[in-house]
Amino acid sequence: MKKIINWILVFAGCFTAQAVSAQVRPPLSVDVNYSIAQPLGSLKDYSDKTSFRGWSAGLQYMLNNQWSVGLRSGYQDFYEKLPRAVYPDKQGDVSAVQTRTLQVIPIQATVSYAFTKPESAVIPYATVGVGAASMNYEKYWGEFVEKNNSWQFLVSPEIGINVPFGKASPLMFNANVRYNYAPYKYNDITNFNSVQGNIGLKFHLN
Amino acid sequence: MKKTLFLFSAAAAVVAMVSFSSCRKDPLKDMTNEESRIYITNHDSTANFKAYSTFSIVDSVAVLTLAGDSAKKALTDYDKKLIASVTAAMQQKGYTLVSKNAKPDLGINLTRIDNSYSAISWNPGWWGGWGYWDPGYWGYPGGGWYWPSYYTVYRVNEKQVAIDAFDLKNPKNSKFVAVWNSLWRGSGVWNIDNIDSMVQASFAQSPYLTNK
């Protein structure tokens, strides 16, 4: 009899443990990050300055302890003002103080894979975001602007960590590094390349 | 729990709103008048500027306004200084000033344009005609010239100044061909204090324009 009770307790314990493990956090989460982006390649030639004006935000749904899918957006503003210079143009020479800007607004679907169990103190993960980005190109010649706005394909692989505030806390600190690529071509830009560092919070909604 | 959630959502909403409204660094904010100006120079690449030795310059400045295609001539302090400054720059480049009756090789027209009416889009065609300078002044109607056409005027009010140099020696089909042109756009181009620096910049970026 005692044996049977013991076995039942063991089984019950296991089931409970499993149930708890599956429910460390509710599956739906929202994240908001502050972003810093470094332009690379031709984007760097166009606008050399690191952008400290950016953010990223998204929703994620955990399919299981490892895999999540989601949707995210964000914003990044690239800006560089150059001292007065003479630029040879198609039909002449233009002396101007150029202010070169690009605003990027991505909308991406994401797939993420967590490398550890949800109850870990630190949860490293990898994400790939695929979608489109609104590229708003504005090059100012003095106070005169040359503008172009278009949507481009954007792919963004990312690695990062989530650090829960306490073992089963629904709130986590998030830090990640993301690479962005878009086959965007306009004037001086032959491809859009940037490396983006993000820090923020991720919260699992009850 | 619900309270935390509410607070978090509120914080996220605030962050998003602040980001949307102030993330963009505005290029026009804190832009000085000097920085706002652009100087566009064009020239006839087939022209041999060493073949010219004399020039003459108009005795007043044509002013184009909303009023219509007919230009008024003006001789304000600004205009006097503009004539003197362009004359000095031409002499520095090795050209000799002569009167317009002494058969100068180059004729120089000066025009101020008040384009304030043309709200957003700039229509070079309007200015491209030769109604703005009395054709009889040089004995012939003027010729054609070139400048970039794809700039968008961002501000509603715009004043411009143009310097046009014409070849008076070799008229084609009884028209003078513009061999050099400088167009000033931006804030403060009608300000007398900026004339010298704008003239200097225009000639400095045109190294081919010399008799030396």
From TrEMBL, chain A:
Pfam families: OMP_b-brl. Residues 1-22 form the signal peptide. Keywords: Signal. InterPro entries: Beta-barrel_OMP, OMP/PagP_B-barrel. Residues 8-203 form the Outer membrane protein beta-barrel domain. It comes from the Bacteria. SUPFAM superfamilies: OMPA-like. This is Outer membrane protein with beta-barrel domain. It comes from Chitinophaga polysaccharea.
